[in-house]
Protein backbone atom coordinates (compact mmCIF):
# COMPACT_ATOMS: atom_id res chain seq x y z
CA UNK A 1 0.00 0.00 0.00
CA UNK A 2 1.13 3.52 -0.81
CA UNK A 3 -0.78 5.98 1.38
CA UNK A 4 -2.23 9.36 0.46
CA UNK A 5 0.46 12.04 0.19
CA UNK A 6 3.21 9.44 -0.39
CA UNK A 7 5.35 9.10 -3.53
CA UNK A 8 7.21 5.96 -4.64
CA UNK A 9 9.71 6.30 -7.50
CA UNK A 10 10.90 3.06 -9.09
CA UNK A 11 9.54 -0.19 -10.46
CA UNK A 12 7.31 -2.41 -8.34
CA UNK A 13 6.78 -6.17 -8.29
CA UNK A 14 3.94 -7.14 -5.95
CA UNK A 15 2.73 -10.67 -5.10
CA UNK A 16 -0.67 -9.77 -3.62
CA UNK A 17 -3.24 -6.99 -3.65
CA UNK A 18 -1.85 -3.46 -3.99
CA UNK A 19 -3.78 -0.37 -2.87
CA UNK A 20 -2.62 3.00 -4.14
CA UNK A 21 -3.81 6.22 -2.52
CA UNK A 22 -0.58 8.16 -3.18
CA UNK A 23 1.60 8.18 -6.30
CA UNK A 24 3.86 5.73 -8.11
CA UNK A 25 6.32 6.85 -10.79
CA UNK A 26 7.58 3.68 -12.45
CA UNK A 27 6.37 0.41 -13.92
CA UNK A 28 4.46 -2.26 -12.01
CA UNK A 29 4.07 -6.03 -12.29
CA UNK A 30 1.34 -7.17 -9.90
CA UNK A 31 0.46 -10.84 -9.52
CA UNK A 32 -2.67 -9.82 -7.59
CA UNK A 33 -5.25 -7.06 -7.71
CA UNK A 34 -4.70 -3.32 -8.12
CA UNK A 35 -6.91 -0.72 -6.45
CA UNK A 36 -6.20 2.93 -7.28
CA UNK A 37 -8.20 5.18 -4.97
CA UNK A 38 -9.54 8.64 -5.75
CA UNK A 39 -6.50 10.91 -5.54
CA UNK A 40 -4.11 8.02 -6.28
CA UNK A 41 -1.99 8.17 -9.42
CA UNK A 42 0.32 5.91 -11.42
CA UNK A 43 2.82 7.30 -13.94
CA UNK A 44 4.16 4.33 -15.88
CA UNK A 45 3.05 0.98 -17.25
CA UNK A 46 1.33 -1.52 -14.99
CA UNK A 47 0.12 -5.11 -15.26
CA UNK A 48 -2.26 -6.75 -12.77
CA UNK A 49 -4.58 -9.73 -12.41
CA UNK A 50 -7.66 -7.55 -11.75
CA UNK A 51 -8.00 -3.79 -11.24
CA UNK A 52 -10.36 -1.15 -9.91
CA UNK A 53 -9.34 2.38 -10.87
CA UNK A 54 -10.85 5.51 -9.30
CA UNK A 55 -7.69 7.65 -9.60
CA UNK A 56 -5.39 8.34 -12.53
CA UNK A 57 -2.97 6.43 -14.76
CA UNK A 58 -0.63 7.92 -17.34
CA UNK A 59 0.76 4.92 -19.19
CA UNK A 60 -0.52 1.53 -20.22
CA UNK A 61 -2.67 -0.74 -18.05
CA UNK A 62 -2.77 -4.46 -18.87
CA UNK A 63 -5.21 -6.54 -16.80
CA UNK A 64 -5.45 -10.31 -17.05
CA UNK A 65 -9.08 -10.55 -15.92
CA UNK A 66 -11.59 -7.83 -14.98
CA UNK A 67 -11.00 -4.06 -15.09
CA UNK A 68 -13.45 -1.63 -13.50
CA UNK A 69 -12.95 2.08 -14.23
CA UNK A 70 -14.83 4.33 -11.81
CA UNK A 71 -16.47 7.67 -12.63
CA UNK A 72 -13.58 9.65 -11.08
CA UNK A 73 -10.88 7.84 -13.08
CA UNK A 74 -8.66 9.46 -15.71
CA UNK A 75 -6.55 7.10 -17.81
CA UNK A 76 -4.23 8.44 -20.50
CA UNK A 77 -2.78 5.47 -22.34
CA UNK A 78 -3.57 2.00 -23.64
CA UNK A 79 -5.92 -0.22 -21.62
CA UNK A 80 -6.46 -3.95 -22.11
CA UNK A 81 -8.35 -6.55 -20.07
CA UNK A 82 -10.48 -9.67 -20.50
CA UNK A 83 -13.54 -7.64 -19.43
CA UNK A 84 -13.80 -3.87 -19.04
CA UNK A 85 -16.52 -1.89 -17.28
CA UNK A 86 -16.40 1.92 -17.45
CA UNK A 87 -18.55 4.21 -15.31
CA UNK A 88 -20.22 7.21 -16.90
CA UNK A 89 -17.97 10.22 -16.30
CA UNK A 90 -14.67 8.32 -16.47
CA UNK A 91 -12.05 9.54 -18.95
CA UNK A 92 -10.05 7.05 -21.00
CA UNK A 93 -7.79 8.78 -23.53
CA UNK A 94 -6.20 5.94 -25.47
CA UNK A 95 -6.80 2.56 -27.08
CA UNK A 96 -9.17 0.16 -25.29
CA UNK A 97 -8.84 -3.59 -25.96
CA UNK A 98 -11.20 -6.24 -24.56
CA UNK A 99 -9.19 -9.46 -24.91
CA UNK A 100 -12.27 -11.71 -24.56
CA UNK A 101 -13.77 -10.12 -27.67
CA UNK A 102 -16.78 -8.89 -25.68
CA UNK A 103 -18.09 -5.33 -25.52
CA UNK A 104 -16.94 -2.58 -23.17
CA UNK A 105 -19.63 -2.39 -20.49
CA UNK A 106 -20.85 0.99 -19.28
CA UNK A 107 -22.46 1.55 -15.88
CA UNK A 108 -23.73 4.26 -13.56
CA UNK A 109 -21.47 4.59 -10.51
CA UNK A 110 -23.38 3.79 -7.30
CA UNK A 111 -20.52 4.28 -4.82
CA UNK A 112 -19.45 7.65 -3.50
CA UNK A 113 -16.30 9.12 -5.02
Your description of this structure?
It is a single chain. This protein has strands at 7-9, 12-14, 18-20, 23-25, 28-30, 33-36, 41-43, 46-48, 50-53, 56-58, 61-63, 66-69, 74-76, 79-81, 83-87, 91-93, 96-98, 105-107. With 113 residues, it is mainly β. It has one domain (7-107). The strands form three sheets. It has a six-stranded parallel beta sheet, with no helix packed on it. The protein has a six-stranded parallel beta sheet with strand order 2-5-8-11-14-17, with no helix packed on it. It is globular, with a radius of gyration of 13 Å.
Output the strand order for the largest sheet: 1-4-7-10-13-16
Shape: globular
Rg calc: 13 Å
Order of helices and strands: EEEEEEEEEEEEEEEEEE
* Proportion of residues in β-strands: over 45%
Total strand count, please? 18
Proportion of helical residues: under 10%
Number of contiguous helices: 0
Task: Give a brief outline of the structure.
The protein has 113 residues and is an all-beta fold. It has no helices and 18 strands.
Amino acid sequence: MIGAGSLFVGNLRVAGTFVLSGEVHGDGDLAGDLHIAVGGGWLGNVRARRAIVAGSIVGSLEVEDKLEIGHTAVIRGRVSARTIAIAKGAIVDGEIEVTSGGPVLQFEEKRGG
